[in-house]
Amino acid sequence: MSATNIKDAVTVPKVMAQKGQVPLVCLTAYTTPIARIVDRHCDVVLVGDSVGMVLHGLDDTLGVTMDMMVMHGRAVRRGVEHALLVIDMPFGSYEESPAQAFRNAARLMAETGADAVKLEGGVEMAETVRFLTARGIPVMGHVGLTPQAVNMFGGYGVQGRGDGADRVARDAVAVAEAGAFSVVLEKLPAPLADRITRDIAVPTIGIGASVGCDGQILVVDDMLGLFADFRPKFVKRYAELAANADEAVAAYAQEVRARQFPAPEHQFGEGKPAREGGK
Ligand code: KIV
What we know:
CATH superfamily: Phosphoenolpyruvate-binding domains
Structural class: alpha/beta
Number of strands: 8
CATH topology: TIM Barrel
Strand content: 5-15%
Number of helices: 11
Shape: globular
Bound molecules: 3-methyl-2-oxobutanoic acid
């Protein structure tokens, strides 16, 4: 399902069929311009609740609201034509009951045009996953390090080491058997991610997990190097956009102060314009 071969839109059954095949390429997006770029190359685009930390400067994802997800979901939908568009259910929008989860998942899908929702949790969320999928809402699971539970974990450390391995494996099996069409495995030892990938029948999508997962996902701003000081082990930077932006803004500031910008070609004359692009 590489971008160059995508003829039709990616669907939930197509994602499921990638189990054990060419790895699924997944990235987050929060805005239309970035969504257009990632859509050219990805099988799955996720409007992650990481938007709260990445774009809104929050300390964690707990303050992300349904309204924020709807706004960013709509923006991303305008840029995504081929990839499967998945949207995160924010903290507090689904944990109370399957009925609450259905109401909010239906709102997210109806108001954004997303194809599926993602929610965090394992055994305790299996009933909710079953309730949603039985009613037409495809669900991507998310186990291991579930950032909405940061206060329970006491941080963003690796999960599933030692005695914790069986618990995470049970979580993945529970949401997969409840009907999730794929499961994100976040920050697990690679051997555990490989074991879960063998044990469940739907694709695993790794982030800080294993190259053996059925797909990989990263936060797009992380892999583009938009955060100069954030260098977690599991992120590979494919660009250094923070450094590029810093250089560009410094050059602009220097040229404005030296009256070098705007140059003649950026200014308008009084005669008939040869070209007056822009807004
Ligand atoms: O919110 C998010 O961006 C995520 C991915 C990193 C999996 O949940």
